[in-house]
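Quick question: what would this complex look like in 3D?
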Amino acid sequence: MSMLFPMTMAQAQTSRRGKVLVGPIDLELGAQGVTAIMGPNGSGKTTLLRLMHGTARLTGGQINWACGLAEARHHQSFVFQRPIMLRRSVLDNVAYPLLIRGVAKSEARSRARDWSQRIGLEDALDRQATVLSGGEQQKLALARALITEPHVLFLDEPTAALDGQAKREIEEILRSERDKGTRLFLTTHDVGQGKRLADDVIFLLKGCVQEHSAAAAFFDVPKTTQAQAFLQGDIVE
Amino acid sequence: MGDLWSGLSHAFWLIISLDQELLEITLRSLQVTLSALLIASAIALPLAALLAIRRFRWRRGVIAVLNALMGLPPVVVGLVVYILLSRSGPFGVLGLLFTPTAMIIAQVIIIVPLIASIAHQSLRDLWAEYHDLLISMNVTQKQKVMTLLWDARRALLTASLAGFGRAIGEVGAIMIVGGNIDHATRVLTTAIALETGKGAFSLALALGFVLILLTISLNLFIHWLGRTEKEGRW
């Protein structure tokens, strides 16, 4: 775990057709806890998460993982806001990341069965993933991301479209993963979720980091007027 | 109308009496077409997947050409294959002209663009759906192709069936490269053409009905095998 961190971003930025989407950003992130990336819609939360994960193109600056990007990618998983379901059964979806890493099919399916049970999908193993409810699909996506036992888990608004019960269940799983030592980065514009899960908060606005502080400090005494307005539920532009 | 009924009844009797000549022609039709289909699918499906995944300079041009080649005139394909395989041609030494192999080659050339184009449509949509997930999982190019081909297998079955339909009904190219030689390269379609030319409409119609029956039966069998319409599947 510690071999991946610290992760540093130095003047990191990404642009498309000459327009800077995110950055320049300078950050240094440690090996422990849950970092919430917060901000209004269009502030660049998802792009920043993808930059960290290495799936968005870095057009300026640097992002350095202690062990190098290629090695770091091997220990990371990503959960998307809209879960992407392979056109396979629940069991085969969960087993997929192991299969592409060369794990034998029987072993992969056995571990997938364990994970499906852990997240409460044991009754849906043979169902096609695309017919599951939104909450079930997100749990499946989480199980699929966790089955490789990643050191770092990126979550892009993992509960954005879910109701209270499903949200609670997902947050339970995330807390348990954090307690096991998995490093979590999640984007959210749900202030309540940030308070419940985050150890530190990166507040983004128009692609730039406005504030990076411990969660308690951010929620109690935000340093910027934009963060104050965001936390009060005002419209921030 | 009389010819139609007579053709139907003739077809019925040919089938239930297991007419040896009909059986031989039908089996040869199946052998040639299924061989061509297998080879064409092995070429066209991975090609379609690669076109969906890979980004290269002339990609759009290649896709446009592939789509255009769906309308390749079989007679021209037959003529080109004939020239290539004839004694004076570059592959004449192989002695393949007027053999079932030559017919398979011609059919493969005709149906590869058709299967690849139809398959590409399905795979392109699936790739758009899977792109972010597979990229984030660091999936290799080969694994991407295999994942797409497996998950789109039912749509690809339809693409292959379209190829089968085109190949089994083909007459122009295989007449040229096969020669319609009795007990050697005669298949259902070339036999129909021959009998029509001789004025034996009843037998020609009978062979036509057998061809239709064969095509529908095989399509139904493959659909059943692939459980295409089963609930909750693709």
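Answer marked as accepted. Chain A touches chain B at residues 53, 55, 73-74, 77-78, 80, 84, 86-88, 96-97, 100, 127-128, 131 (CB under 8 Å).
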